Amino acid sequence: MTTLLNITTILSIGLMIGTELAVSLFVNPVIGKLDNRARLAALRLFAARLGFAMPFWYCLNLLLLIAETFRLRRDSRFPLVGAATAMWAAVIVLTLFFLVPINNRLARLSPDAPTRETLDQHQKWDSMHRLRIAALATAMILFLIGIHF
């Protein structure tokens, strides 16, 4: 059961971080090359799609990390896995306060939205998103070290 939980957690958080990284490294730069009307439409579509799916995935990963932390509560590896879980929870809270409001505005865009203001908001979201990716990757590294040693 422990091996299955480890594999599930590693795959789920790893795939999520990979998805978030792909958005930052590939999707957003491609969207940035579109003309303004197409860019706004693409931002709206991606914000709506990812804004719907990602909260469930973030919560699933937090639950998996909580299960791992609980499993190791009396183990010397607890501090690292606990730190990973706490970091993941902090990312969720910060996402709710800072990234979700911007994402929701982008998801409700009309094709006639003021371009400069909208693009500035997306730039702000993208900068914070990169910090989120770094925090998630750090949490995963802590988790991997914690379950390995």
Task: List the uncertain runs.
Answer: none
Q: Radius of gyration over alpha carbons?
A: 17 Å
Q: What profile does the largest beta sheet have?
A: none
As a percent range, the share of strand residues is under 5%
Helix-residue proportion = over 70%
Q: How many E-type strands?
A: 0
Q: Write down the secondary-structure element order.
A: HHHH
Query: Tell me, what's the shape?
Result: elongated
Which secondary-structure class do the elements indicate?
Answer: mainly alpha
Question: What is the rounded distance between the termini?
Answer: 18 Å
Q: What kind of assembly state do the chains in view correspond to?
A: single chain
Q: How many helix segments? A: 4
Mean residue pLDDT: 94
Key attributes of the depicted protein:
elongated; 88% helix; 0% strand; 149 residues; mainly alpha
Task: Describe the protein's architecture and organization.
With 149 residues, this protein is mostly helical. Helices cover 88% and strands 0% of the residues. It has helices at residues 2-32, 36-71, 78-107, 115-148. α2 runs antiparallel to α3. The radius of gyration is 17 Å and the shape is elongated. The model has no long low-confidence stretch (mean pLDDT 94).
